[in-house]
Structures are given as C-alpha cells and as structure tokens.
Write a structure and sequence with these properties.
The complex is a heterodimer of chains A (330) and B (287). Chain A contains 11 helices and 14 strands. Chain A is of the alpha/beta class. Chain A folds into 2 domains: 149 residues, 3-Layer(aba) Sandwich (Rossmann fold), CATH 3.40.50.920; 166 residues, Rossmann fold. In chain A, strands 3-2-4-5-7-6-12 form a 7-stranded mixed sheet, sandwiched between helices. Chain A is globular. A 5-stranded parallel sheet of chain B has the order 1-2-3-7-6, with helices on both faces. In chain B, helix 3 runs parallel beside helix 4. Chain B has one domain: Rossmann fold (3-Layer(aba) Sandwich). Classes of the chains: A alpha/beta (330), B alpha/beta (287). The interface between A and B is medium-sized, with 28 and 31 residues.
C-alpha cells in the first residue's frame, strides 16, 4: 500500500463498508463545538437553517442564532457589523447565493474592512444534482480566491469540514468554507491531523502528482490505487486550503514527479486548478492538466451521471493521468 | 457645545471641505457641504465619544454608508481633535490615511469601510444587534446614508432586519437632498413616500430640517427615548449648502461641471470666500 500511514486515514477506505457522510454535517457539528467553546460565536442564517446544518447550533444556542431571511446581501453585511462589535459570525447559504450574489459586500465590508466573518457556502459543485445549473455553484472558489485577506477552504469530507470549522473560528481573518450537499466518502478520521494552509500527501507516488480538494479527493485516491496495480505510481495530495495554497508540499511533489493534475468540483479557471497552474507557471513549470468543470454550466442529473458527464470520477481521472504521462518528457 | 458653537463648527467644517477639495483636485462637493450641520451636531454634541480614545469600547458608533461624502467626516473629526487639521490636506493623496473613500484600517475612528452604496445600514444593524446581545444597549449606533443609495436593495433588507428585531439602539439619518448623479431622485427612481416606507418597515420616523442643528439634536434625543423601535431621521438638506452657486445643482455631486481647471479653482476660491463671509455673519449674530 502507498497510503500515508501517518495520517490515520479511514481503514475502510477501499472497502464496501466505507461510510458516506455529507461534509456539510461536519460543519454543523463543528459549529456546535465552536459555539460551546466560544460564547462570541454567532450563527447567521438566510432561510436555510437545516440544509446548511445550522439547526444543531440553533437549538443549543437560540440566543446566538440570527435569522435574516432570504437576503444574502444583508446576511454578510449584518455579519460584518456583528464582527465589528466583537462577535465571531458564521454565515451560511447555498454557495450560488453566498458568495454568488453578495460578492461586492464581502469584498468591501468583510475583506477590505477586515472583519473576521466566516462565509459558508453549501451545496457547491455539480453533485447538488437534480436542482440543476442555477444551484450548482462552480465559480465560488475563483470569486473568493481573488480577494485579498480571504482564506479559502474546501474540505474533502465530514471530519475535515468539522476540523476546518473549528480552526477557522480561531483565526481573526475572513474565510470562505465550501461545502457539498451529497453524502461522500469518509476519507479522514478523528486522528487525521489538520491545519489551515497545509496540504497533505495522502498517497505516495513518483510518476505523477494529483492535487485535489473537496469530495473528489476520494476519486483521486481510487484512481491512484487502481493505477498502482498497473505499475503507475501516482502521488495524491489533498489540498483543502486553496488559499493560502501550500506551496511547499505541492512544489516538493512537482519536483519529484514532474507532472501535475488538479481535481476539483468547480470551474478550473480560477479554481484550485488555476491556483496550482499559477504556482507552477511561476516557480516550476511542468506538464499539467486541470480536471474540473471546464467553462460550462452544470445541469440536472444524479451525482454519478454528472461526475461522469463532467469527467470528474476516478475513471476519468485515470484517463487524464495516462494522457498527461504521455506528454511528460521522458 | 451650545447651538452657536455648533453652527460655527459647521461653518468651519464647510471651509475645511472646500480647502480639502481644492488641495485634492477631485472629490465630491455638494453632499459633504449639505451634511456639515448634521456632522457638526453629531461630533460636537450627539455622539458619546472621545477623540483621544477612538477604540474606547463604549463609544457610540457612527457608520457612514455613503462613503463618497467622507470629506465631511474627516473635517468634523479633525475639528474635534481626532487628528491634526493639517492632515486634511492629504485627502486622496498617495499614502494618506484620508483615502478617497473611507477605510477603517487606515484611520482610527472610522468604524467601517464604505463607498459602494447600500451596505452601511446592515452593518449598523449587526453592531446594534451585538450590543443588545451583550446587554450594552447604552452604546448607540448611528448610520448616515444618502438618499439616492436607498435605491439599493440591500438597504431594504437591512430595514426589514432592523425593524423585525426592534433595534431601538440604532438611529438612521438620511441625507434627503433629492439629488443623485443622474438628476433629481424623484425622476431617476422615486423614493417617496419615504417616511411611510420606513414606518411600514416598523421604524419610528422623524423629519427635520437638516440645517437646523437644534432640530437635529432634538430628533436624536427623541430617538433615545423610543424603546420599541429603531428611528429613522429624514434630514431635509440642500446639497452644497452654504455656497449659493453650488446649492441645488446636482452637477456638483462630483467635482467640477465645467472641466476647466482655472474655472474650477476660481469657483472654489469664490466658495471659500463666501463661507468666510458667512462665518463672520454667524459670529456677529451671536457675539
């Protein structure tokens, strides 16, 4: 096995009994934990209490739960004011609406104004499924990554979302946490280390590097395992923090493998793919391919149908690995 | 501060504004002049604050939503001692703490960063909500907005939120000067009946002459005595107030309607001399 044993990943990782849990639930449990630990934490909600998993917090701390209704511009600007008065606000909606609708307010009243608001965008990616393109937010990573003073975190699973929520509550800086709707593979465990700004090598290899974030990290791992049986050594890096990107870990791997693929459930333009391309283009150019949504909108369908259509699943990742290996100078 | 002193303060603020804009060579003219009396009343009397301790936790908060009128705030802050008046001349210059639109991180005492319209009221609402949560309702939150910016949807989201939560520790002051960049508000996009709109959103509404300092003060006092609702003070103002050829002319929203530098400077010098004359009048009336 090429799995990184130091990370205490789920021992059932490739077994049929592997648990599947939505990472938004990890946020909900993390929010309850930070609410318990810090009385200044407040939750601000835009009519999506249950689907953004604020209900546990709301039930436990009703006096710190603020409902603004269907008003995403107000959601983030009220939060800016709450933060200015000493609170640690977490604000949730669907990513299509926040930061989709309220980007300018985030830019001016949170980033430039330096208020430590945590913006949580749920139901991101095509995996939202039947709701279709309007609700499948794909541009949020690009939108948030270009903002000075903003941290961007895309957790791969339940535990990572919980840990990210707990870590962000302690950072006096604006942050964006991107979540998905569907149940996805539980890759990490309670014992897996986590830190904002750190990427981790989940699977060690030497022929090609795959840098992934979000639920598709699991697809990258499945691809790496299958290719190992065919003699292809893939290194899989989980990079939940898209900004600030962990340059050290990614460059070290790129220097070893000299070929890099990125995987994300978002527009590759400006997304994780964009971030890694910028890094490598400036510091260590190697052949590269960005897996993700490539300048298209989503559509209705099941998760499986859509991950196939947009070439995001393990099978497509394997295909693109072979293509890139063919382009790699020998 | 007596009413007379506040009127003198307002006049000094107007002179500062004209001098700053001559020095800066760009910026908004009419709005800041129209707000001079309101800012004199706020900084000279209404606000509980300490210019030497801009981070004092119990200070009243003043959120300026229409950031483009910030010269009036800078002038008022300098007049009451937040920073030396000489610094006003750095307005809009590279490296200045007095940015073209206000930035909280650059100058202590600004409370928020603004410019893009329509977002100040929500921030004020968030602050007022937090102070009430913490049992610190004695900290009052004031939010000054323009009238044209009330066309932003974000304002009405905020008005609903503040009305729903009965944030009586919040006072909004609308600079109702009836002008915006493209012309009179009522032809660009009508706002009336403005008072009834805020009443319908659960607010207590007071209409005042925005150049009558006693009325402004009295309205702010009345707002403190109302415990069941937030208060919206609609302050009727004349854009460019104090300089007769700027008054009422929407073209002075920006800097210069002629585009000719020598004319521009001549106009501003004329404005300044007019204000100095006015300053003399006020003195003679009250001394």
């Amino acid at each position: 096995m090429m799995i990184n044993k130091l990370l205490h990943l789920n021992p059932k990782l490739f077994k049929p009994t592997l648990e599947h849990v939505p990472n938004r639930k990890g946020f909900g449990d993390g929010l309850y934990n930070v609410g318990t630990a810090n009385k200044q934490v407040v939750a601000v909600c835009a009519d999506l209490e249950e689907s953004t998993q604020m209900n546990t917090f709301a039930k436990a701390f009703p006096e710190r739960f603020i409902e603004v209704g269907v008003a995403e511009q107000n959601l983030v600007t009220v939060a800016s004011g709450l933060a200015a008065a000493g609170k640690v606000p977490f604000v949730t909606s669907y990513a299509a609406f926040s930061p989709g609708r309220n980007w300018e307010q985030i830019r001016t009243t949170i980033c430039l104004n330096d208020q430590p608001v945590k913006i949580v965008g749920s139901h991101a990616g095509v995996s939202v499924g039947p709701d279709g393109a309007t609700h499948q937010m794909l541009e949020d990573i690009a939108l948030m990554r270009t903002l000075p003073n903003m941290i961007v975190v895309v957790p791969c699973d339940y535990h990572e979302a919980r840990r990210a929520t707990e870590a962000l509550a302690k950072i006096k800086q604006p942050a964006y946490l991107r979540l998905a709707r569907e149940k996805t593979a539980a890759i990490t465990t309670e014992r897996t280390p986590f830190a904002i700004g750190k990427a981790q090598v989940l699977w060690e290899g030497s022929d090609i590097t795959v840098v992934a974030c979000g639920p598709l990290v699991y697809e990258a791992l499945v691809a790496a395992k299958q290719l190992a049986a065919h003699g292809v050594s893939v290194e899989v890096i989980n990079s939940p923090t898209v900004k600030p990107l962990d340059h050290v870990t990614i460059l070290r791997s790129a220097k070893k493998t000299k070929a890099v693929i990125t995987v994300e459930e978002a527009q590759v333009n400006g997304g994780l793919g964009g971030a890694v391309a910028e890094l490598l283009g400036e510091q260590y150019p190697v052949p590269m391919y960005r897996i993700g949504v490539r300048d298209r909108f989503g559509q209705s369908g099941t998760l499986a149908e859509l991950w196939d259509e947009y070439e995001l699943n393990a099978q497509h990742i394997e295909k693109h690995i072979y293509s890139l290996l063919a382009r790699k100078p020998q | 501060m007596t009413t007379e002193k506040l009127e003198l303060l307002a006049n000094s603020i107007r002179q500062d504004i004209i001098e700053m804009l001559i020095e800066a060579g760009s910026g908004h003219t009419a709005g800041p002049l129209g707000l001079a009396d309101i800012f004199a009343a706020l900084y000279g009397k209404v606000l509980i604050h300490d210019p030497k301790k801009p981070d004092w936790p119990d200070r009243d908060r003043l959120i300026l939503s229409n950031g483009h009128v910030v010269p009036v705030r800078y002038a008022a802050m300098a007049e009451v001692g937040y920073f030396p008046k000489a610094e006003l001349k750095s307005l809009r210059r590279f490296g200045s703490r007095l940015q073209g639109h206000p930035e909280r991180l650059r100058l202590p005492g600004l409370e928020s960063t603004s410019g893009p319209l329509g977002s100040g009221l929500s921030q004020a609402g968030g602050m007022a909500y937090a102070f009430r949560m913490d049992g610190r309702k004695h900290v009052r939150v004031y939010c000054v907005t323009g009238d044209g910016e009330l066309q932003e949807g974000n304002v009405w989201e905020a008005a609903m939120f503040i009305g729903k939560n009965r944030l009586s520790n919040l006072t909004m002051i609308i600079d109702r000067n009836n002008i915006q960049i493209d012309g009179p508000t009522e032809s660009v996009m009508p706002l009336e009946p403005l008072g009834m709109k805020f009443q319908a959103f659960g607010w207590h509404v007071i209409e005042v002459d925005g150049h009558n300092i006693e009325q402004i003060e009295a309205a702010c006092e009345q707002a403190k005595a109302i415990f069941e609702k937030p208060t919206c003070i609609i302050a009727h103002t004349i854009a460019g107030k104090g300089v007769d050829f700027i008054e009422y002319d929407f073209r002075w929203h920006g800097y210069d309607p002629t585009g000719d530098t020598s004319d521009k400077l001549r106009d501003y010098r004329h404005a300044l001399s007019e204000l100095r004359t006015l300053h003399g009048k006020i003195k003679s009336e009250h001394e």
